[in-house]
Amino acid sequence: MMDVFRLGVLFSTSGDYAAIGSDCRDGAALAIAELQAEIGRDFAIAPIFGDPAGSGARYIDLARRMVAEDGCRHIIGTVTSQARKDVIPVMEKHDGQLWYVCPYEGFEANGNVIYTGACPNQHLIPLFAHLLPTQGRRVYLAGANYVWGWEMNRLAREIVTEAGGEIVGERCLPIGDTDIGRLVAEVEARRPDFVLSNMLGPSNHAFLRAMRDLGRRDPRFTPERCPVVSCDLTECELPDIGLGVADGQLATAAYFDSLDTPENRALKARVAARFGTERRVSSYFATSYATVRLCVEAAVRCGSDDPAHVRAALTDHTMPSALGPLRIDDATNHTGLPFHLGRIAGDGFEVLRSQPCIAADPYLVARRPLLSSSHALKPQLRIVS
Fold first, then answer.
1. CB of 3 closer than 8 Å to CB of 43
2. Which of 131, 189, 208, 301 has the fewest Cβ atoms surrounding its Cβ within 10 A?
3. Alpha helix positions (H), the chain
4. Under DSSP, is residue 317 helix (H, G, I), strand (E, B) or coil?
């Protein structure tokens, strides 16, 4: 039995997407503190924290240090897909395990990565299955100018086209770019039924503020008539946007703070005790928290930090969590996750619709027959009372 488990925690807590990285880090830190108290003195968790500040070079350097110098065989971390792809070669070279907690664009299943964030069949496809028949099929796509924005927009184009809809416009902005005037002018001119925003951080915040102003000038662009929908916007960014500014806009997530389940009530009580009662829990926080527990508990069960042994310890094991039961599929290294559609209201989300745990399908093997049938365009979600 090992005495010390060294765990890298690699999130950008400064820079353009600091709010997301900080929530991921805080979720990991809470889980580490709780696990250390539960396991006792015979087993020490030694976290190594790193802040790459959104820099790809820093992600690579810090990951290399963690595995090659600090002895971390497991890293919980990276926020963007570009950072994940930058770090994967480091993990492959040193036979380490990256645990990726953020929603992403799919089309990846790497043996050195455990994916606990949602992939498109768990966020984008159920979102469009609801929106296209209810909101309309004229869609504008806005994205961040990197792999997440490119791939999410590509999938959206395929889904909308196969459904007989129309992409009325598309624009990608560099991460952090807040010059959104031309984008908003295009939305106003082309009058979509809704906008899919795959932007990140300040770009998305500026866009949502501008859409609020546009809706005040022209009621055709209020959230009720032309919502902005997202697969990566959560509670942790609402204060940066301005509370109330984005009210009525929509987002999907595997978790919302407002979910009323015993597991979530228990998690929120622990969060309140550590961070205060005003702290809202995002899917980033909840997933990072649950992922640390998955990782460390698997290491304790097998008595080793060897990634192969830890992966084997995940097989046939289901862990309860605020996101629902989590189980890693050893064929894809992904976990099944629920789908929730939320509407922004103040500092949180009102859950409108939910779908129970969806098995991850990162390469969308089952997507084409789903979308080619008329059945796919009917909402298959239950109303949450």
1. yes
2. 189
3. 18-39, 56-68, 81-93, 124-134, 147-162, 181-190, 202-217, 238-241, 262-275, 283-302, 307-314, 367-372
4. coil
- Fold classification of 121-258+340-383 (topology level): Rossmann fold (3.40.50)
Instruction: Tell me how many degrees the CA angle 327-333-334 measures, rounded to the nearest 5.
Output: 60
Domain ranges of the chain: 4-118+260-336, 121-258+340-383
* Mean pLDDT calculated for residue range 263-289: 97
What's the rounded Cα separation, in Å, for the pair 116 and 192? 33
Tell if the pTM clears 0.85, that is, is over it.
Answer: yes
pLDDT digits (tens, 9 = 90+) for 132-180: 999 999 999 999 999 999 999 999 999 999 999 999 999 999 999 999 9
Residue 227 contacts residue 247 (beta carbons within 8 Å):
no
Residue 331 has pLDDT above 90, yes or no: yes
pLDDT reported for residue 316: 87
Give the burial class of 178: count Cβ atoms within 10 A of its Cβ; 0-12 exposed, 13-18 middle, 19 or more buried.
middle
Q: What CATH fold (topology level) applies to the domain 4-118+260-336?
A: Rossmann fold (3.40.50)
Query: Which residues, listed in sequence order, are joined to residue 141 by a DSSP beta bridge?
Result: 170, 196
DSSP conformational letter for 218: -
Q: In the chain, what's the furthest Cα-to-Cα distance? A: 65
In sequence order, the 6+-apart residues with CB closer than 8 A to the CB of 158 are none
In this structure, the strands spanning 348-358 and 74-77 are: unpaired
pLDDT bucket at 1, cuts 50 / 70 / 90: low
Q: Is 176 left (phi over 0), alpha (psi -120 to 50) or beta?
A: left
What is the C-alpha separation between 83 and 80, in angstroms, rounded? 5
Closest to 211 in 3D by CA, of 232, 178, 231, 187: 187
CA distance readout (Å), 61 to 87, 90, 134 = 9, 9, 47
pLDDT digits (tens, 9 = 90+) for 83-111: 999 999 999 999 999 999 999 999 999 99
Rounded to whole angstroms, how far apart are CA atoms 36 and 138? 52
